[in-house]
Structures are given as structure tokens and as C-alpha cells.
TrEMBL record:
CDD domains, per the entry: ALDH_F5_SSADH_GabD (cd07103)
Sequence ranges assigned to domain Aldehyde dehydrogenase in this UniProt record: 17-477
Cited PROSITE patterns: ALDEHYDE_DEHYDR_CYS, ALDEHYDE_DEHYDR_GLU
Phylogenetic lineage: Bacteria, Pseudomonadati, Pseudomonadota, Gammaproteobacteria, Oceanospirillales
Name of the protein: NAD-dependent succinate-semialdehyde dehydrogenase
Gene Ontology biological-process annotations: gamma-aminobutyric acid catabolic process
Keywords noted in UniProt: Oxidoreductase
Organism: Neptunomonas marina
Top-rank lineage group of the source organism: Bacteria
Cited PANTHER family: SUCCINATE-SEMIALDEHYDE DEHYDROGENASE, MITOCHONDRIAL
């Protein structure tokens, strides 16, 4: 399809491209240069109610569609996404800013979830349970939970939708998606491809709005909705959990992180540095599993800091459409102000600025790749979710110390460990209070594995066979009189 065919300026409800009833619009701006891309409807609560009602009607027929039929549609959706990957990547880079090669990777990651969950739709098995009486038979079945709402973030505006929509639709649910205000275009493009793939009217709905509080409340409290899935900050996630609790909805929360990256003396230094760059600086550091704290064992601290600094200095800022660009813009000016404040206060508190530490001439939303050394646990920057291209280096002496320090946070999403000691791999991986641990690997996300955190980093899992369970109810059936 052509770019113009996937650039939609209407919301998508019940198989129709619609405007806001109130006539409101909101502009989508390219964060790299502030240029105008498109306008989409600013839907209100009444529009959201219409989307939920459409999803409820569609659910009654979609849940009866065979798993094989749902799988075929999801496979066609996957094919269309991969066939249009270049166009989708261009759209993603325009509205979000990340380098085009990263955008292409995200699009293909998005597609993989539709492929995976289409196949998993045919494997939602129940079980037979040995009975406690000869006259009964006990069994379980899995059924779709119902209408689902998804509130998705701007940092991965297409893959985060796929991680929610693919398992929901595969399970037999219908879904209403509220994309982030800054990045609604990828969601609308996905809906256009869903329509082309044969997804029936009402099964997927996209509500664009710049009224996140009132529309979000409707999506979380409407009694028709049986499940809420959210990716975003922990403070907002707590509010959403509270609203979902009003009607005891099932909820999946993928929330904030404060990822430690632990490098032991025996690690392969070059591998650790490469993993650190990959983990920290992709998407300009704007990911929930980006490393926030680099704990380097004292014996190799200086060597790691030197090599890491050399690699950070090579990173190029610029437009995502420039093939030499490694880091694009931050999403808005507030994001730049936040991380600059953290850096300046850390330096005032005694951190050593090795690289960067200021806005860049590439544009007002660009911040230089930054490296701070001699950071301590007491500094504000050690407890904040950075969401920017900032690395902080801490020194540690032994295994017990670093585990305690790494766990000393309310967050528990992802952690990274570099060591060649297999015993240490097991001990540290088991003792770290995180939902995911990368061992000698800085990139850990894929559709095959469960993604999610512990503590205040969320509840539930996305991806893998476990991702289907969050969109299904387990029903027990006792058959008597046998």
C-alpha cells in the first residue's frame, strides 16, 4: 500500500472511519523538526462509549468464530504488516522520531506477535481432571474474557499495540485501543491493515483523543469492559488499577523500570560494552527496559568506563531518515527538560560528566548521549526512570553487595548480568527481584518469551503462551450422573 493509504486522519469504530462527534481535532507533530504530519479526531467520552458498545456487539459473534478461522485472519494481518513494513516504518519514524532502521525493526516485531498468537489461538487447551467420585467427570475449558481496552504508549507505538491486540483477538476477545496522543497514526494504520485482513467490524476499534483522563476513565470503568491492559508509568498504572477495581476487571500493567546492568570482573569486556550500548541508547533511551544503572565491579571499572565512553562518543544524533543517525529526538520538550535537570543535579551532587550532558544543536528535542561516572545510590538520578540517553556508572566490590543495591528499588522489570561464571549466572539471576533477566545479552524482548515485571513494575505478562491466558477465563465444569 502507498503511504497515503496508511496515513489515516479518522478514528476507527465498528468498521467505520469516523470523526469526533464534537468536531474536535488534534495535530500530530514530527518530534525531530516540529513539522506538521496530520490531524486526527479528538474523541470524547460519548465516542469511547460507542466504541465499547460496538466491541460488545462484535464479541458475541467473534467469540464463536473457530480458532482456526481467527488464526487465518491473524496470519493475513501478519502478511500485510510485513508486506508494508517499509511504509509503516516511515510513518513510525515521522511521528515518533526513532531512526528508520529501528522503526523497521519495531514493525517486524509487531508483525511477529500476530504470527505467534495466531498460531497460539489453536492451542488454548483445557484439561481433564481425575475425579474424586466415579459418577462425575471434571474438566476445564478456556474462554475469551470479553471486551478489552488497551491504553498504549508513544515510545513503541506499533509493537505495544500488537502485544495487546494480537493475543486479545486470537483468544476471541474484541478490543478498543487508545493510542498515545503523540503517536496515533501507527494505531490507525494497523486498523487499516486489520480491515484489509478481514477482521470483522467492531473487533478492533481505535479511539484517538487528547482527553486521556476522561476517556481513560471510561475505558477503565465501563462495566461492559472485562479487561484493561496498560503500558506506561507506574503512577498512572496505579490510578488505572484503582479504576479497574471499581468493577473488578482483570488488568495487565506493564509499568516503569529502573534496570540495573551488572558487569562482573570476569565478564567479556567487549561483549559487555556492546550490550550496554544496545540496552541503553536504542530509541534514545526511551524504553521501560533500558538500563538505568550500570554497576561495574571495581576490578574492571576503569577499563569499562574507558571503552564505554569511546562507544558513546561515536553515537550520532539526527533525523531518523538519515542513515548515519543512531539517536533521534526525545518525544517532547518536557522530556528534554526532565533529563537535563537530572543530569545537572547529579553533577552538582558530585557525579563526573564524561560525555554529553546538554541539549544538542540538531534540534530543541535532541539531547546528547550522556555518560556520568562515580554516581552513588544516594543521588536522585539513581532512583529515577531516566527515559533518555543517559548512562550512570556505579562501582561495586562483591556479589552480595551488588544484588542488594540492584534490588533496592520499588521497580522490578528488567535486569542485565554479564559474567562467565555459570554458578554466578544462576545465583544472581535467581536473587535479582526482576521479571526478566538478560545474561550476557542486552536485547531480550521477543514474542516467544513472557514480558513483564514484579513489584511496582506491573502485573501480568505479554508475549509467549502465557500472554494468551491474560485474555481468557478458566472455567471448571463438573459433569455428574455418569
Amino acid at each position: 500500500m502507498k503511504f497515503s493509504e496508511l496515513l489515516k486522519e479518522s478514528a476507527y469504530i465498528n468498521g467505520q472511519w469516523v470523526d469526533a462527534k464534537c468536531g474536535g481535532k488534534m495535530e500530530v507533530i514530527n518530534p525531530a523538526d516540529g513539522s506538521y504530519i496530520a490531524s486526527v479526531p479528538d474523541l470524547d467520552v460519548d465516542d469511547a462509549k460507542n466504541a465499547i458498545a460496538a466491541a460488545e456487539v462484535a464479541f458475541h459473534s467473534w467469540k464463536k468464530t473457530t480458532a482456526k478461522a481467527r488464526a487465518a485472519i491473524l496470519r493475513r494481518w501478519f502478511d500485510l504488516i510485513t508486506e508494508n513494513a517499509d511504509v509503516l516504518a516511515e510513518l513510525l519514524t515521522k511521528e515518533q522520531g526513532k531512526p528508520l532502521r529501528e522503526a523497521k525493526g519495531e514493525v517486524l516485531s509487531c508483525a511477529s506477535f500476530f504470527e505467534w498468537f495466531g498460531e497460539e489461538a489453536k492451542r488454548t487447551y483445557g484439561e481433564n481432571i481425575p475425579s474424586n467420585m466415579g459418577s462425575t467427570r471434571l474438566l476445564t475449558i478456556k474462554q475469551p474474557i470479553g471486551v478489552v481496552t488497551a491504553i498504549t504508549p508513544w515510545n513503541f507505538p506499533i509493537s505495544m499495540i500488537a502485544r495487546k491486540a494480537a493475543p486479545a483477538i486470537a483468544a476471541g476477545c474484541t478490543i478498543v485501543i487508545k493510542p498515545a496522543e503523540d503517536t496515533p497514526l501507527c494505531a490507525l494504520a494497523l486498523a487499516a491493515l486489520a480491515e484489509e485482513a478481514g477482521v470483522p467490524a467492531g473487533v478492533i476499534n481505535v479511539v484517538t483523543t487528547k482527553r486521556p483522563i476522561e476517556v481513560g476513565r471510561e475505558l477503565c470503568t465501563n462495566p461492559i469492559v472485562k479487561k484493561v491492559s496498560f503500558t506506561g508509568s507506574t503512577p498512572v498504572g496505579k490510578i488505572i488499577l484503582g479504576m479497574a477495581a471499581e468493577t473488578v476487571k482483570k488488568a495487565s500493567m506493564e509499568l516503569g523500570g529502573n534496570a540495573p546492568f551488572i558487569v562482573f570482573d570476569d565478564a567479556d569486556l567487549e561483549s559487555a560494552v556492546a550490550g550496554a550500548i544496545a540496552s541503553k541508547y536504542r530509541n534514545a533511551g526511551q524504553t521501560c527496559i533500558c538500563t538505568n544503572r550500570f554497576y561495574i565491579q571495581a576490578g574492571i571499572y576503569d577499563a569499562f568506563a574507558t571503552r564505554f565512553k569511546e562507544e558513546v562518543e561515536k553515537l550520532a544524533l539526527g533525523s531518523g531518515f538519515d542513515s548515519s543517525t543512531d539517536i533521534g529526538p526525545l518525544i517532547n520538550n518536557a522530556a528534554v527538560d526532565k533529563i537535563d535537570g537530572l543530569v545537572q543535579r547529579a553533577v552538582q551532587e558530585g557525579a563526573e560528566l564524561k560525555v554529553g550532558g546538554q541539549r544538542d544543536a540538531a534540534g530543541e528535542r535532541f539531547y546528547q548521549p550522556t555518560l556520568l561516572a562515580n554516581v552513588t545510590d544516594e543521588m536522585e538520578i539513581s532512583q529515577a526512570e531516566l527515559f533518555g540517553p543517559i548512562s550512570t556508572l556505579f562501582s561495586f566490590e562483591d556479589e552480595a553487595e551488588v544484588i542488594e543495591r540492584a534490588n533496592n528499588t520499588p521497580f522490578g522489570l528488567a535486569a542485565y548480568v554479564y559474567t562467565r561464571d555459570i554458578g554466578r549466572v544462576w545465583r544472581v539471576s535467581e536473587d535479582l527481584e526482576y521479571g526478566m533477566v538478560g545474561v550476557n545479552e542486552g536485547l531480550i524482548s521477543n514474542e516467544l518469551a513472557p514480558f513483564g515485571g514484579v513489584k511496582e513494575s506491573g502485573v501480568g505478562r505479554e508475549g509467549s503462551k502465557h500472554g494468551m491466558d491474560d485474555y481468557m477465563e478458566l472455567k471448571y465444569i463438573c459433569m455428574g450422573g455418569i
